[in-house]
Amino acid sequence: MKLQRRNQALEKQVTTLLAKSFSGMSVEIGHAARWDRPCIAIRWEGFGGLLPEERFHRLVSAIPDEFRTSQLAGLVWVELAPGETVDDVLKLPRSEDVAKREADIGRTLTHNGFFATLADRLGRAAKRKCPGDFTHTAAVLSDMGKPPERIRDAKLLFIRHGAFCDCQVVATVQPAMTKEHAATSPACSPTA
Predict the structure, then answer these.
(1) 160/145 same-domain check
(2) Are residues 114 and 86 in the same domain?
(3) Domain count, the chain
(4) Which residues are CB-neighbours of 178 under 8 A, at least 6 positions away?
(5) Is residue 1 part of a domain?
(6) What is the CATH number of the domain that holds 82?
(7) Which of 48, 109, 113, 122 could cross-link with 81 by S-S, CB 3.0 to 4.6 Å?
(8) How confident is the model at residue 145 (pLDDT cuts 50, 70, 90)?
(9) DSSP letters of 93-112?
(10) Where is the domain boundary, 43, 59, 91?
(11) What is the pLDDT of residue 154?
(12) Residue 186: Cβ-neighbour burial (10 angstroms; 0-12, 13-18, 19+)
């Protein structure tokens, strides 16, 4: 991505803020002709395999709110893995893409025992420490035989509900999904 009229002073400030959490990343801030607006483009190898909203959440979590609102407000954010183009990232799915299938995805996860299995796995995890991402979520779904696109859809559903890591899935999404889908559980069904 080629940016015009780059703001090297702000690039340096953002790089300093993010260096500890995003070792080896590069930051460019300048005018993007594509949007005719100022843009911040961050390239980091750790973004590979992450959904766009996961990438953004990780970055924003590492930048103090006051700095972000005073220095970075109004910028278009682009988070790129090595070798990715802006077009590649724009084609990646977002949480809004599962909105129409949200109930079906949630019902399937609830009825298949996903939430109980994840909670059990987190409870048994060494030091009961959440890795800050969907590591255990992906592993549980993979162990259940779910293909990569179903794992992605589950992560998008969790993001829709404000969860960006395993412990947030258990703390916030599980209670909502369990309550919502308890009435339709196969055990409660007259035909079960």
Answers:
(1) yes
(2) no
(3) 2
(4) 110, 115
(5) no
(6) 3.30.300.90
(7) 48
(8) very high
(9) --GGGGGGGHHHHHHHHHHT
(10) 91
(11) 97
(12) exposed
Can you read off the two tokens belonging to residue 190? 């007259």
Closest to 166 in 3D by CA, of 187, 192, 185, 141 = 141
pLDDT in tens, 83-137: 999 999 999 999 999 999 999 999 999 999 999 999 998 886 644 677 889 999 9
Question: Whole-angstrom Cα distance, residue 57 to residue 21?
Answer: 13
Residue 162 tokens read as: 């404000």
DSSP string, 174-186: HHHHHHHHHTT-G
Q: Which residues of 56-93 are buried (b: 16+ CB within 10 A; e: fewer)?
A: bbbbeeebeeeebeebbeebeebbbbeebebeebeeee
Give the global pTM: 0.85
Residue 54 falls inside a structural domain: yes
Q: Give the span between the Cα atoms of 85 and 52, in whole angstroms.
A: 13
What mean pLDDT value characterizes the chain?
90
Q: What are 46-67's pLDDT values in tens digits?
A: 999 999 999 999 999 999 999 9
